[in-house]
Design brief:
There is one protein chain. It contains two helices and 18 strands. By secondary structure, the protein is mainly beta. The protein folds into two domains: 87 residues, Immunoglobulin-like; 86 residues, Immunoglobulin-like, CATH 2.60.40.1080. Strands 1, 3, 4, 6 and 7 form a five-stranded antiparallel beta sheet that branches. It starts with a helix and ends with a strand.
Amino acid sequence: MRRAMVVLAAVIAIANLFSCGSHDSVNTAPSAPAVPIDLIRLQPSAADLARGLFVGDQNRIAIEATDLYGNVLQVPLALASRNSDVASATLVSAQVGAITGVGVGTTYVVATSGTASDSMQVSVDGNVTGSITVVPTEWTLKVGNVVAIGATLRTTLNHPSRGRVPTWSSSDPAKASVTSSGIVTALATTPGITICAAAPDVPAPRACTSVIVTP
């Protein structure tokens, strides 16, 4: 009888030992801590910056959230424009946003996640001519020569103009004529005249090339 009681007590002790071990392992299992966001970056492409944003255009921007060590994080993001009359901003995917030009002006686009945020200035170009460049700046032609002069128009925000064609003129059409597309024909000898390109939408920007015509 005594021997049976000793065996029973040992079995109970072993059962309690395993039960405690299992219970402790559940309670002490570590939970993965949330990784804090250190920085959010809005990154427009170089091509979009060079091309500009005009009314009706849609440009893409990359959105990157990183921790203190520079590791990229996959976190929920929000994207918004401070002035939707100038530009709208929407998320296309987890790390890509779309900015659409609505009206001429300047606003800011803001990306946020928790307490972290980043903003980017967005200017919608009005396609107003700000400068004209004519190349080359000097020609020496012989009577009868025909050449094409190139003109580059840029906006007041220094983007390539959209759909703008310069107005061409000659200071002496009897010596050298120029067509509406910048084709110059040398007609008679001259020590120098000017062929000019003017902006079609505003009076100020103007660029000229000097033309010398020899026999």
